[in-house]
Amino acid sequence: MPVVTKTPSYEDTLTDEKPDDKAFIVSEEEYKKIIRKLDIHLLPFVSLLYLLSFLDRANIGNARIAGMATDVHLDGLKYNVVSAVFFIPYAFAEVPSNICLKLFRPSIWIPSIMVAWGTVMTLMCLCNTYKGLIIARIFLGLTEAGLFPGVTYYLSLWYRRRDVAVRIAIFFSAATIAGAFGGILAWGIEHMEGIGSLHGWQWIFCLEGLLTVIVATTAYFFMHDYPATAKFLTTEERQTVIAMLREDCQGLATHYHRKFVWQAITDYKTYIQMGIYCGLLITVYAIALFAPTIVKELGYDAAEAQLLTVPIFVAGCITTLLFGFLSDRFVLRGPILVSSILLSMIGFIVLYTQAKPGVAYAGAVLAAMGAYPTIAIDLAWAGSAAGGDIRKGVLIAMVVGTGNLGGVCSSFIYITPPRFHIGHGTILGWLGLSLLLSLLAMWDYNRLNKQKIALCEREGIDESRRDEFKDMGNESPLFRYTI
Fold first, then answer.
1. Is Transmembrane helix set as a keyword in this record (predicted)?
2. Residue 5: enclosing H or E segment and its boundaries?
C-alpha cells in the first residue's frame, strides 16, 4: 500500500518548502478511491475540450470532400497549403502558452483560448476564397495552440508519472472519437446545403465552431485548477494527492525560474523526444487530414467515404485506451511505444502494396490502430523524462510544438492519388525514424539510471538529501528515468 508524507497544503510544494516529517498510510482501497475521484472530475471534461479541438482542426478534410475544393477552386496544391498553414503558428505558440498556463490559472487560460479559436472556427463559414481560408487557418492555429500541450501538462500536475499514461490516452482518445464523430456529423450537415445561402461545408465550420464557444463558456465555471483548490476533494484527500505528487517529483523544484526553461532547451534528451514525437504526429495528422480522401480514392462516393472513416477512428480509440492501460499497468513506455509503431507500419505497408479496396481499407484500420496510441504513450514518456514542473512544461511544449510543425509535412505528401505511394512511403520512413529513436532513448535512459544508482551508492546519497538537488532537474542523482 502507498506510503505518503503529509503536507499542509499544495502551496507549500509551489514554494519548495520541506514537508512535515509525519507520515501516514493510505490503504490501496482509499488510494484507488481518490484516483477515481480525480478521473471522474477531470477526464471527461478535458476529453470533451480536446474532442472539440481536434474536430475543429481536422474538419477541413471532411469539408474538402463535401464540396469545398470545388466551390473555392482548391486545385493543385491549394488544399495542402490551407492544411499546412495551421501548423506554423500552432507550433511556435505552444511553449509560451504552457508558461502562461503556469503563471495564470488553468481555469482562466484554457477556456479563454477555446473561446478564441471557437470564434475563428465559426467565422470560417464566411470564407469563400482561397486567401480567406489561409488567413482563417493561420488564426485557428495560433489560438488553438495551447490546448493539447496545456492539458497534457495540466494532467501531470494532478497525477503521478506512473498513473498518467492511461489518463493521457483517455484524453487523447477524444481525437479518434472526433474523427469518427466528425465523419457522421459532416455527413449530416452536408444536407444543409443552401440554407442561409451557405454551402453544406460552410455549415460544418459554423456549427462546430459555435459548439466550441458554448462549451468554452461553461469551462470557466467547471474546470478545476490544482489539487489544493479542488472543492470535490476532502481536506485529507487534498493533502494525500499533494503528498503523492511531492513524493513523485522527487523533491525537484515546482516554482518558476527561467533557468528551468534553459535546462529543458539545452538537454539533448529533449531533442530525442522531439524526433520521436515528430514522426508519430506526422502519421496521426496524415490519417486525420486524409482518411476521407484515401477512402474516397478506393472507389467510394463522398457520402460513403464520410461514413467509412468512422470504423478507422473507432479502432484507433480502442487501441489508444488499451495500450495506455498496459503502459501504466506495467510502468513501461518504450516497449509499448515500439509495439504500437510496428503495428502502424504494418498497416501502411498494406496500404502501400495492396490495390484491392477491401484489403487496402483493412490496412487503413491497422495504421490508425497503431498510430493513435503512440501519442499518449510518448507524451507520458517525455513528461516523465523531465524533472521539475517548469522543465516538464517546457519540454512537453517543445515536443508537441515540433511535432505539430510536422503537420506541414503531412499536408504535402498525399498528392498522388489513388494509391498515394509518396504519402504512404514517407510515413513509413518517419515511423522508422521514431522506432530507432525510441530504441536509442530506452538504451540511454537505462544507462543513465545505472550511473545514478552507482553514484548514490558510492556517495551515500538518499532521499534525506533531496533538497540539495531540487534545482538540478534531471541531473539530480535521485532522479530516475522511466524506460
1. yes
2. strand 3-5
Give the domain ranges of the chain. Answer: 23-475
| CATH class of this structure's domain 23-475 | mainly alpha
Helix axes 106-123, 130-144, angle to 10 degrees: 170
**Alpha carbon separation from 50 to 149, 243, 340 (Å, rounded):** 11, 29, 22
Alpha-carbon span 178 to 173, nearest angstrom: 9
What are the tens digits of pLDDT across the range 328-343? 889 899 999 999 999 9
Please report, as a single letter, which amino acid is at residue 244.
Answer: M
Q: How far apart are CA 449 and CA 477, in angstroms?
A: 9
Q: Report the C-alpha gap between 291 and 54 in whole angstroms.
A: 14
- The distance in angstroms from the start CA to the end CA of the chain is 23
Joined grid coordinates for residue 30: 482509499
Q: Quick check: 189 and 67 in contact, CB under 8 A? A: no
Do 74 and 82 contact (CB within 8 A), yes or no? yes
pLDDT digits (tens, 9 = 90+) for 82-128: 988 998 898 888 888 888 887 888 999 999 999 999 999 999 999 98
pLDDT tens-digit series, residues 122-178: 999 999 899 999 999 999 999 998 888 888 888 888 998 888 888 989 888 877 777
Cβ-based neighbours of 340, under 8 Å, separated by 6 or more? 319, 323, 370, 371, 373, 374, 377
Q: How far is CA 451 from CA 167, 226, 263, 457, in A?
A: 31, 35, 20, 10
Q: Is the dihedral of CA 104, 124, 305, 352 positive or negative?
A: negative
The helix (H) or strand (E) run that includes residue 345 is helix 334-353
* Residue 242 exposure: Cα atoms within 13 Å on the Cβ side: 27
Residue ranges with strand state E in 198-303: none
The span from the CA of 266 to the CA of 299, in Å, is 50
Cα-based angle 413, 299, 204 (whole degrees, multiple of 5): 70
Check the CA dihedral 291-293-296-301 and report its sign.
positive
Name the helix (H) or strand (E) containing 117.
helix 106-123
